[in-house]
Amino acid sequence: MNFVEKELTNSNRNLSQTTIKKYCIDINKLALAITKKPIRNRAFLKKTDEIIKYIESLSNGCKKNYLCSILTVLAPNKKVISSSKNKAIPKRGYKKVYKVYSDYLNDFNIENKKKASTKNDREKLNWIDWEIILKFQKELYNNFIEKNVHKNTKYIARSDKLELLNLLCLSLYTLIPPRRLIYAKTLLLSYEDYIKYNDEKSDILDKNLFLVILDDDNKFFSFGKSIVKSKTKENLVINIPKELNDILNIFLVYHKGDFLLFRRGDETQMNKNELSKLLNTLFIKKFNKKISCNMLRKIYATHTCPKLNNNIARIANQMNHSVSTHIEHYVKPE
């Protein structure tokens, strides 16, 4: 573990291990580019002119990524100013250096202030209207129900169980506002245990995604504030609509365990890459289109944006990003 990883792991920024790893990779690449050596300490970041000249040669996306990584390494911790505001605390001797990069990032953001972006070539090639995706979900549902296999509560053929898994995964991204690939981490929890954790072990709820089961008619997702990509002040509860609840009821008859989604092979818990591959495969087989989870989110946001009016904030919150990100990154006007 190098000093960057150690400091960020122990900082009060509450960064995920994935984010920490990304910052470590960015800073090490920058050190190699500037000093021709792997990173040993942050002193090389004082070469602001040389580093900014290097960053200027990169794409806008890479510029912002490097600047965010630099600023985080220069100020691993934050000071709480109020319930809604934190202030970065630069390391001793790096306050002026921090300001140079911070001012550069502010200027960059002003210059590149975004409006709703248009579809790129790949998106244009693979785009499918949201209504067609909903019809696809309905088709999978009807095909499964018509087999009547769900009426036998003691046995289900493996092929039917995998078909049911496909239906559930697609339904998670169509019957409620689509999140990222976090559903791969879903654990099952009774309502009684949920209340107990809420009273006695709230950190367990903070760090996990649970499907909380009250009874056959009532379930909800509890998204821990520390597990989601965009950290939230409180855990988010999303109630499950009847159509998705009906599918979950069938699925849970045949799937036993403390997690929701399983691998197609050994039926251990699915990971994010496997969930991504499952969704991609469904759309390739049906439409010969490459539709990722991220693109599904863009199609949904684009379809619903004109209809939401004052509800954009609610949908953006359920999708776990800001309103500005929703409009600037996910909504793709013609």
Task: Provide a compact summary of the structure.
By secondary structure, the chain is of the alpha+beta class. It has helices at 3-10, 17-35, 48-56, 60-74, 95-111, 121-126, 130-146, 158-172, 191-200, 202-206, 242-254, 272-287, 293-308, 312-319, 323-330; strands at 77-82, 85-89, 187-190, 209-215, 218-223, 236-239.
- Number of spatially distinct domains: 2
CA-CA gap between termini: 47 Å
**Largest sheet: spatial strand order:** 3-4-5-6
Helix content: 40-55%
Based on DSSP secondary structure assignment, what is the total number of beta strands?
A: 6
Characterize the largest beta sheet: strand count, sense, and whether it forms a barrel.
4 strands, mixed
Instruction: Output the radius of gyration.
Output: 23 Å
Question: What's the tally of helices?
Answer: 15
* Strand content range: 5-15%
Order of helices and strands: HHHHEEHHHHEHHEEEHHHHH
CATH topology-level name of the largest domain: hpI Integrase, Chain A
> Which stretches are poorly predicted, pLDDT < 50 over at least 5 residues?
none
Structural class by secondary-structure content: alpha+beta
Shape: globular
Highest CATH level, the class of the largest domain: Mainly Alpha
Which architecture of the largest domain does the CATH hierarchy give at level 2? Orthogonal Bundle
Mean pLDDT: 90
Structure description:
The protein has two domains: 3-111, no CATH class; 121-330, hpI Integrase, Chain A. It has 15 helices and six strands. With 334 residues, it is α+β, with helices and mostly antiparallel strands. Helix 2 packs across helix 4, helix 4 runs antiparallel to helix 5 and helix 13 packs across helix 15 (323-330). The protein is 54% helix and 10% strand. The strands form two sheets. The chain has a four-stranded mixed β-sheet. A two-stranded antiparallel sheet has the order 1-2. It has helices at residues 3-10, 17-35, 48-56, 60-74, 95-111, 121-126, 130-146, 158-172, 191-200, 202-206, 242-254, 272-287, 293-308, 312-319, 323-330, and strands spanning 77-82, 85-89, 187-190, 209-215, 218-223, 236-239.
